[in-house]
Each structure stands twice: as structure tokens, then as C-alpha cells.
Amino acid sequence: MENLFEDQDIIDINIEDSVKASYLDYSMSVIIGRALPDAKDGLKPVHRRILYAMHDLNISSRSPYKKSARIVGDVIGKYHPHGDSSVYDALVRMAQNFSMRAPLVDGQGNFGSVDGDNAAAMRYTEARMTKVSEEILRDIDKDTVNFVQNYDDTLKEPAVLPTRVPTLLLNGSEGIAVGMATKIPPHNLKELLDAVLYMVDNKGATAEDLMQFIQGPDFPTGGTIFGRRGIIDAYKTGRGRVKIRAKHHIETKGKKEVIVLDELPYQVNKSRLIEQIATLAKDKQVEGISEVRDESDREGIRVVIELKKDAMSEIVLNNLYKSTPLETTFGIILLAVHNKEPKVFNLPELLNLFLSHRKTVIIRRTIFDLEKAKARAHILEGLKIALDNIDEVVQIIRSSANDAEAKEKLQDRFGLSIIQSQAILDMRLGRLTGLQRDKLEAEYQELLALIAELESILKSEDKLNEIIKEEVAEIKEKYSDERRTEIEDSYDEIDIEDLIPNEPMVVTITHNGYVKRVPIKSYEKQRRGGKGKVAVTTHDDDFIERFFVTNTHDTLMFITNMGQLYWLKVYKIPEGSRTAKGKAVVNLINLRADEKIMAIIPTTDFDESKSLAFFTRNGIVKRTSLAEFSNIRSNGVRAIVLDDADEVVTAKITIPGSQYFMIFTSLGQCIRFEIEKTREQGRSTRGVRGIKFKHDSDFVVDADVIISEEQELLTVSEKGIGKRTTVDEYRLTNRAGSGVISMKLHQKTGSVIGSVLVDETQDLMALTSIGKMIRVDMNTIRKAGRNTSGVIIVNVDKGDKVVSIAKCPKEEDDELDIESATDLAGVIEDTNLVDNKQEEQNSQANENLIDKGEEEK
Motif GyrA-box: where (predicted)? Predict the structure, then answer.
């Protein structure tokens, strides 16, 4: 077969090089020609071409509407070699007041809705430019911008538009290119122009300087931005994240609360949101919602969420924020193209580019006007010469055979240029009247003044800046409106501790996860053996499971049964009355559905000299430097790796000087060993064996950190029996041993529920499963040996039991205020009316129990 390529040159090409070159060409085409906006005019090519095509068609804001199909046809036929649907979609978005902060297209017909409805076909809709678009295109015919060839080299199109408006930040932009993306939020025009005016006079303005004018993004749909940290990051670095929440207000309907949504986060589909809320309510994933309906109309958005009778609007809202687009995150990336190069800019850089573009446009416009004025003055100078020598000019023209000969003679006789001689030939006889001669002279003098002014502008930076400021002020006057998106400070970003008194609080948490803080003065000290008073109002299936005393400025570390650690400032926990239910802890920290808080530890700092020790149900202990927990994410961190069927029971802080760990089990075992037997480990580790159980049914219930052997431990059982024992009675052993007996147990004591270190400057507070709390002076509790049972600390009712104990500061003043006295009247009366016989019975029962314990020993 004859070689078809015998007479042709064959070039060997590496396929990798070919693919690489082709892909790079494609990438640059997408980056520069399609997906990213220009930093100068803030427009992508398709938007720029739509506006320029409408300018070509003379479709101004004062012109009649024209069919969208006509506009799209011109755009794809002349400038944009892509599909008509992509062009029409861009045009539709430019007309949507819920997508653009300042719409660039004035649409007539169906252009879509916040419910996600599509626009009508382009043959049905009509459009024209808005007044803002005219400001973007103003002076384009004065050689203010460069023009380039269109895709088939038959026409010219502008490379950028000579905008008077900072469009990039005004309307924002979103686009995904190859290997990069941009996401610029909309802003308020008045704030942007105020910042521009400031930058004109302050060349080196920083992001902090500009933020006194620009508060943050201003979305067309309103909403509320929570926190300023993401805004600051974006304006300083070009990248940041802001949280946007829907605006709402609460109405009442009988005894029920009604949540009404007034504004939605940017780009949230309303109908899809309502459907999602209804589904969550139906599936019981969000409790408390009885009905959801859409009452929106042309006046605005109104989404009504009716709650059940006992539902709290705040809890329902927090659940909806977590589970629905009622709260969204907008990731800001200030990426744009400048001189055909994509780059991430900060706020001052973007505004400086806009200012630089405006200066270039004004200079080019001034040069254009100057050249035009000089050309006109040149003609007027020739006309003046002709009028001064009109008889001779007429004679020359009459004696000439044709125009060319007449022009040549005029040039030779009066030293005129070709342009001037042509103008004389074109001059009408009406110009020879005296009035017209005066007008000609006046026009000439005006042109001379204009030329002088234009030349002074080109020579003076100050005059150039004044023009910029005048134009910016004019735009601000015409088109500014009020901010729609509110910005609220986040507690995570504000140091408000100086505004909050640092006082002791009792923090309680119920079995079902409701937490609150109550001033410690709300609880009054009672005699040993007292019945206590109700600490919280709970439902039948709930009870207080844990409580402790801390100060409002402390940080709380929440350790869960799954080994996760979260932290929260005490003052962020809602303060409630003594009988208040509290707030669901899942609304304060991001717990998983199957997580349960096992330890809540207050701390004032995260010093690396301290460590955090974890104790598990199966007897594992692990120690980690406290400094590793100083920066916790919102979803917590893994604090310990757990074995299967194991969980964290408690956690304690060790400080310099701490010597021993003591671990207590449910069946009365206790082990004491040196802290140094457990070395510090990282967060994601398992730990080591702390105690070995004698019985398979036994498990760890509590643990303590010991500083001195002279310290005393108060051990309490579930039937309210307790005793004080010095640490040195518990033999020091090696880690992972069985330990010794910590409490003599029998039917009247029940199992061990916990232990605390005795501090006679503090009181003991004990909590029962039905929600009663009693405060006892530790000095009234007798000391007893290690292998004894103890005395009655709390008289528990039948079916009730002690579930938790803790220490609290002594009260300096036992007098009740009026409100507390009223609340406690019944309780105090019950306590004071106990007759002497009952007191004797209680005392005798304690003595008998102690004697029985001593005999068994």
C-alpha cells in the first residue's frame, strides 16, 4: 500500500506534553473567559457582554422593554460563543432582586422566585437596563476602556466597562474555574462608597480603617450575620467564613408560641426549607412543632412555625439552626482576575483597584474631551479667519474650479489646515450674520476655558481626586439605601467577662440533659439528716443527675461517656430560678445523639503544668497535659480512646504537688497509687489499667486526686450513709491492683455512689434521684475507720436514692431574703417542726449503725 504520508513532514509529539498544553489552554479559557469576574468592573464576560449588547440596542432604563430573546440573540451572535441557555440564565439572575443587591437588568415577566421557580422562557420575558447599569456603562463611547476583537474578529467589544460603581463588592460574584473558585458576598452601596471616599484621602488605609464604614456583607435577602471574626478574616486575608441566620420574631397564639420567619439566609430556597422543617417535625427529629405554613406574599416573606403547648421557641429554633438551612455558612473567597491573572485580594486591594480603574477612566475621558475640544477650537479659529476676511474668501471660492482647488487656495492664502479649509467650505451663509458671529466667538472662548480646565485636570492629582469624590458622592446620593443584613456579635468573639460579676454558682444538669446555673445563695444550710428542698422542677421521667459549684468566669470542660471533651464559659449557661427546668445542654455544646456528659470540670486556665486525668468504668486511667485542651473545636475533641463496652466515669485535674490517684468502685473497693505511675499521654490514646476488680459485676464509680495523706475522704452510699476517713488509712499500692475496702456495705447502705475530699471550710451538697438537694456542714459528719459504714447524712424516702455529691462554699449569712423565705417557707417549717422524739430516733439509728460496723470489723 502506498504511504500516504511519504511527502509530508511528521513531527513527533509527547502525548503528555500535548495533553498538558491543551488542558492549560482550556483552564485559562475557563478562568479568564468564563468563570471569574474582573477585579476592575466586577463582571464576568457573559454579564459584560449582556450589558454591552443592550447598550448597542439602545435599551436604556428609559427605553421600552425588549424581548429577552432579542437580547440573548445579539449576545451569542456577536460576542458570546456559547449556548443561549447560559446567557439567558445570567440575564435572569441579573434581574432578580433576591440574587443581586443592585439588579442590573429591569425585567418584565416571570424571572423566578425565592421558592426556586424557574423563569419563563426568554420568548415570554422582556428586559431593559436599570439606572445602575447605565452608570456602569457611562462614558464607554469616550475611549475610556480598551476594546478587543470579538470571537470571529468581525466586531469590537470592551475588555472591561468604565463603571462608576464598585460592582464586584456591590453584587458579589460566584464561580468555579479550574483549580480555583470565587465567592464574593454582596455589600451595601452606601458603605462601599463611604470607604472609597475615605481611601481617596487615605492612600494606605487598612482593612481595620475601612471596617469603620463597611460593617460586612449586606445580602439582598437580609438575614443576620453572627460574629465578626469571619468578616475580619475575609477583609484582611481574602478568605473567611460567616454564619447567616434567618430573621424571626415570636408571636403568641393562646398559650402557645409561634415562630414567624421574616427573612431567610442568602440563596436559601424557601419552599425546600419549609418542606425540610415539616419533615423533621413529622419524623420527631425536632420536637415541639405542630404546624408549618407559608404566608408569604408580595409584601415579603412570612413563614409561620406553630409550636406545641409546652414547647420552648428558643430550643426549637436552635434545633432548626442545626438541622436546616435556617442557619447557613457563607465561605468568602475574594478571588478575581487582574491583568489576566487570577488572585485572592483583601478588601483594601479591591477598593484600590476600583479607584485606580476610575482614575484611568477619568484620565482617558479627559484626554478624549480635550482632543475633541481642541479639534473644535481649531475649526473655530479657521472660521474666525474666514469671517474676518469674508470678501476675499468668497472671491477665492467663486474663482476656483472645484472644492479641491478652493481648499488649496485658502490654505495658501491664510495658512489654514485641511480641516479648517473644509470647514469654511461647509459653512452656511447664515453664519455671516452679526448674531452668529457673536455666538461663534462665545463658543470659542468657552472652548478655550474648557481646554484649560481639562489640561489642569491632567496635570493635577488633587483635581483628579476631587472629580472622583464628586462622582462617588453623586452615585451615593442617587442609589444608596439602608443596610438589610444585621450583624450581631458572637459570644465566642467578645470578651464580656468584665461586664459579668465573678460569683459562685450552682450548676445542675438533669438526666435528660437540661442545664442551668443558680446563685449559691438560693440554697440554705440545714442540719444533718434534713430532708432538703427541691432544686429543680423536673418531669416524671427526669431527675437531676449531677451538680457542682463554680464561678461565672471559669471555663467548664464537659467530658462525655464516649471520651469527647467540649468546653464552655459558665456565664454562657442560662441563669434560672431554683425551680426552673433549665436549658437543653445540646443547645450549648454540639453533643451527639448518643453522648452523655459524665464530668464537668471548671478551670481558670490551661497551664501545661496541670494535667487532666480520665477514669473509665472498666478501671482504665489516663493522664494528658491540660494545655492540649486549650483550643477546642465546636464539635469537641477526642480526649481518650475507649475499649469496647467501656465508658468514661469521671475526670479530674491534677496540679503541681498532687501525689496520688484514688479510685472507688461500686462494691466498696478503693486503690491508692502514685500519680507518676501513669505517664502523660496524648489525646488520642487509651491509657493504662488503674484498678483490678474482685467481682465481674463491679465497676468504677468515682476517683480523686490526692495531695497529702493527711487529707480526709468523705465516701457516700446510695442510701445516704457516709463517713470521713483519712487518706493514710488506705494502703498505698501499685497501679492495677485490687486495692482495699473503702466502705463496709450492706442492705442499709446500698452501693457506693461517690467520694469527695473533705474541706471543713466548705459544706457538702447531696442530690437525690427525685431532685432534692441538701446542704450539710462537714463538721457535723463523724470520722470513722476505712472498713466501716458511717452515719446517716441524708434521709432518703422509699424509692429514692442519692445520685451525686459535691462540695460548696460555706454561707457567711444564714438569713434569708424575702423572696427566698417565701420559697422555702414550707421546707423550713417541715424541718423545724421535727419533734425531739424524731431527733432521738435519728441519733439512735446512727449510733446503732456505727456500732454494728465496728463489730463486723
Answer: 526-532
Q: How far is CA 639 from the centre of its chain?
A: 26
Which runs of E-coded beta strand occur in 720-848? 721-726, 740-741, 752-757, 762-768, 772-777, 791-792, 802-809
CA distances 456 to 145, 367, 370, 486, 718, Å, are 22, 11, 11, 45, 94
Contact, 598 vs 647, CB < 8 A?
A: yes
Predicted pLDDT at 666: 92
Closest CA to 655 of 589, 610, 607: 610
Put the strands of the sheet holding 721-726 in their side by side order: 752-757, 712-717, 721-726, 791-792
Where exactly are the structural domains of the chain? 43-162, 247-325, 529-536+608-809+816-856
Residue 225: pLDDT above 80?
yes
Q: What is the pLDDT of residues 243-286, one digit of tens each?
A: 999 999 999 888 889 999 999 999 999 999 999 999 999 988 88
Q: Say yes or no to pLDDT of 608 above 90.
A: no
Q: For residue range 546-570, what is the model confidence (pLDDT) as tens digits?
A: 677 888 888 888 899 999 998 888 8
> How far, rounded to the nearest angstrom, does the alpha carbon of residue 242 sit from its chain's CA centroid?
3
The residue count for the chain: 857
> Is 247-325 a CATH 3.30.930.10 domain?
no
User: CA-CA distance, 624 to 608, in Å (whole number)?
Assistant: 10
What are the C-alpha distances in Å from 616 to residues 453, 640, 703, 736, 839? 85, 10, 10, 13, 41
Q: Alpha-carbon distance 436 to 572, whole Å?
A: 83
Q: With beta carbons less than 8 A apart as the criterion, state whether 509 and 546 touch.
A: yes
The string of DSSP codes covering 178-191 is SS-EEEE----HHH
Quote the cell numbers at residue 779. 463538721
Please identify which residue in the block is written with the cell numbers 421557580: 117
What top-level class would CATH report for the domain 43-162?
Answer: alpha beta
Centre a 10 Å sphere on the Cβ of residue 484 and count the other Cβ atoms it contains. 16
- What are φ and ψ of residue 368, in 5° steps? -60, -50
- The whole-angstrom separation of Cα 172 and Cα 135 is 17
Catalytic residues: 124
What φ, ψ does residue 305 adopt, rounded to 5°?
-120, 105
Whether the predicted pLDDT of 659 surpasses 50: yes
Our CA angle for 670, 676, 680, nearest 5°, is: 110
The grid coordinates of residue 120 equal 419563563
Query: How far is it, in rounded angstroms, from Cα 611 to Cα 736?
Result: 20
Angle between helices 390-399 and 347-388 (to 10 degrees): 80
> DSSP state, 435?
H
